[in-house]
Amino acid sequence: MSTLEVKSLTKRFGSLVAVRDVSMTVAKGELRAVIGPNGAGKTTFFNLVSGFFAPTSGSILFEGRDVAGFSAHERVGMGMARTFQITEIFPELTVFENVRIAAEVAAGYRLRPWLSRADTAELRRRVEETLALAGLTGKANRLVGELAHGDQRAAEIAMALALKPRLLLLDEPTAGMGDQETYEITQLVRRLHKDGNLTIVLIEHDMRVVFHLADRITVLDQGTFLAEGTPQEIATNDAVQTAYLGKAA
Amino acid sequence: MLQLTFFNVTNGLIIGAFYALMAIGLSLILNLSGVINFAHGGFLVIGGYLAYTLRPYIGFWGALLVAPFLTALIGLAVERLLIRRMYGRDPLYSLLLTFGLAFIIEDATRQMWGANGLPFSVPEALTSPLSSEFFFITGYRMFMVAMVAIVVAILFVLLRYTRIGVRIRAGTLDLETVSALGVNVRALRSLNFAVGIFLAGLAGVLAAGQIGLEPTMGDGLLMPSFIAIIVGGVGSLTGTLLGGLLIGVASGLTAVVFPSASEAVIFVMMALVLLVRPRGLLGEEGMMT
Amino acid sequence: MTPDLQKRAAPWLHVAALAAIWAALIAAPFWMPLFGGYTALGSRVLVLGLAAMSLNFLLGFTGVLSFGHAAWFGLGAYGAGFVLKWAVLSSPVAVIAGTLFGGIVGALLGMLLVRRRGVYFAMVTIAFGQVFYYIAFQWSSVTGGDDGLRGFERQPLDFGAFRVDLLHDDRAFYYFALVCFAIAVTLMAFILRSPFGRTMIAIRENERRARFLGIPIEFHIWAAFSLSCFFMAFAGALYALLNNFADPRVFHYSLSGDFVIMAVMGGMRTFWGPLLGAIVFVVLQDYISSVTVNWMSFIGMLIVLIVLFFPRGILGLVERRTA
């Protein structure tokens, strides 16, 4: 059973068709990159999968289950987590506190008035574990809003991880980063892919990152499916070259 | 009975027209700038009092023409000096700001013109009733409705067919894109605010002719304006117009059967709309956040 | 800063500040007269401060803009008044009844509100408040209309062995109010430090992120809203007991606005800020209205100044310094 299966997904905004008849299947444990020129509908695609809005037509199956009608927060509960193109974090809380909230929700504590000592300790352990995975242990007590761009992204990814997702949607995680930060995030994603039981779908513009990480690549152009294949196949695909018109990373 | 109903419905339409005038100004400002103008009633008051002051010099018609413009200028100044700084901040602050402004305006009015009511006479020609049968439809009330109708029609035409109008409407839906297209958003907001205030000022002059002048005369219109917007639908100017007329008429109709509840009915309508169709009659989905 | 952060930044400072606050509150009837104050004023500040803190529970900690919160305050007041006037001659029962009345109505009406945000939410809350104002005004047979609900007074506390005369003994009432205040405030702090409280703060910090962490936003906002209504009604009930009187003004949006100003002035993002704001506001209002007829202009200008230059409030400024 695939983790994510999308069939003929279409999204219309009035007369604008952002995503047209896109289908793809992502296998369990796969790292799929979704690429395409600007305006290709990639983020819209993520918005549809994560439940930000509903599709005009088509279906989305998560682990074989149709997610239509499930709201965004419900899909998180089902095992989906995502990051955003513009980092969405809790700026005036510390890194630890950011991740803790995610961990609390994942543990089912969100309505709890009180946590026992044991629960608190367990929670703390989990948060610290996640922070270590994301390489943020040293920055745990810093306010996220004051961190460097790359660290904020890492924090956002840590929050997503704390949810113990089975599908992780990363929207341009290296956008706006310099080489060093890009490298670090790439390494982080690689670690996650290898260690966890995680299926990852990644929107990226930086081709180095894409070719370094992806098992398979799906190319979108103007909201439609253009090509799909291994990095090798995509690199030599003429249609893809044309679509990008020389706009490499 | 029919006579009474007709009387009350007409009355209701007249009041509704008034609510609509106020509400449309409020709605313009709310939709484009996200500001709830608590001081809207205050600008109505300014409009009325300015007309009163100007009247000895330029007569009723002069005052009717000039006072709303002057009020709009004051509004413009307020927008550029104060309200502009609130854009992009938590909506709480613009709300508080206009709330504070309302206090200042009320007190300043009291200070400058005194706390007591002042009369505002209207030209003879307007006050005579249309006919003995429809005695209650005095010329002035028809005049008010006519004025509102004309001004609202002009506004809608401007919004529909002029470049600025299109920009305002586009800005209501997506200010970021409009800005990206090179439109001077700050100027647009200022202008939009001034137009909204113009309408409030006009309402003030018209109200003065009907009920005279008083520092607190704007208060009673603020709530119905809010409700007109909620009922008609947030984000839709036509909706606001419709909302204002509807609650006015509902108010009038209720006065036939249940005079003491005629004010309450507008709250009931609001509650109904919230229960059954939260975005309002003509409101757009997703405009509520 | 979250309550946790405050604690972590300088734990001893936090404890010292807390001790100082409670010491000042407990000793108020004794030091207030030194500054020209009097005990009943202290009770008033306590009650209004609690109201401001209740509003801030929603406004400052969940980030939800309610500008009609006086509605629940008013319901608490009238609820307590009704009980004392027609049902049971007991202060605690009146307070509990008022609290439940305002809280339950608030929770029910809150369901109509939670789809909205920002200005639109604020608009509807304002309108709701005015509905109750209108009802209190018009339904004079029950509510006493413009004259207000009269003919009741706070009852003494009967502990069997001894009685505490709340009615005639200002000091006794002050301490009664202080105990109530302490209960409410402790409960509030408890909730804010709980996992649920943290979801409230998360929603304030970034609603979208909170949603995509799996938090059902509408439900949590409704829950926070309802809790704040209960606290607000509690304050309102105490207010009725304080004045032995309740009138429609207790619902008016200008009172809602006053509470917002207290919260903002004292520091919206802090726990004790609104109490400080209430102190400053009440004292200022008293002073200004005794000195000039134009107190409205002054309050208006104060609001404008705060909004322009001190949006973080007094405690907000202090926090910036110590952070």
Write a structural description:
The complex is a heterotrimer of chains A (249), B (289) and C (323). Chain A has 249 residues and is α/β, with parallel strands linked by helices. Chain A has nine helices and ten strands. Chain A has helices spanning 42-50, 72-78, 95-106, 117-134, 149-162, 179-195, 207-213, 231-235, 238-244, and strands at residues 4-13, 16-26, 31-35, 57-62, 65-66, 80-82, 167-171, 199-203, 216-221, 224-229. Chain A has a six-stranded mixed sheet, sandwiched between helices. Chain A has a four-stranded antiparallel sheet with strand order 2-1-4-5, covered by helices on one side. In chain A, β9 and β10 (224-229) form a beta hairpin. Chain A is globular. The mean pLDDT of chain B is 86. Chain B is mostly helical. Chain B has one domain (14-219). Chain B has eleven helices and no strands. Chain B is globular and about 55 Å long. Chain C is mostly helical and 323 residues long. Chain C has a single domain (39-322), classed as ABC transporter involved in vitamin B12 uptake, BtuC. In chain C, 74% of the residues lie in helices and 1% in strands. Chain C has 15 helices and two strands. Chain C has a two-stranded antiparallel sheet. In chain C, β1 (157-158) and β2 (163-164) form a beta hairpin. Chains in contact: A-C, B-C. The interface between B and C is large, with 44 and 37 residues.
**CATH homologous superfamily of the largest domain in chain A, by name?**
P-loop containing nucleotide triphosphate hydrolases
Please identify the top-level CATH class of the largest domain in chain A. Answer: Alpha Beta
Shape of chain A: globular
Q: Oligomeric form of this entry? A: heterotrimer
How many individual helices of chain A? 9
Radius of gyration of chain B from the CA trace? 19 Å
C-alpha end-to-end distance of chain B: 45 Å
The CATH architecture classification of the largest domain in chain A is 3-Layer(aba) Sandwich
Poorly predicted runs of chain B are none
Helicity range of chain A: 25-40%
How helix-rich are the residues of chain B, as a percent range? Answer: over 70%
- Tally of discrete structural domains of chain B: 1
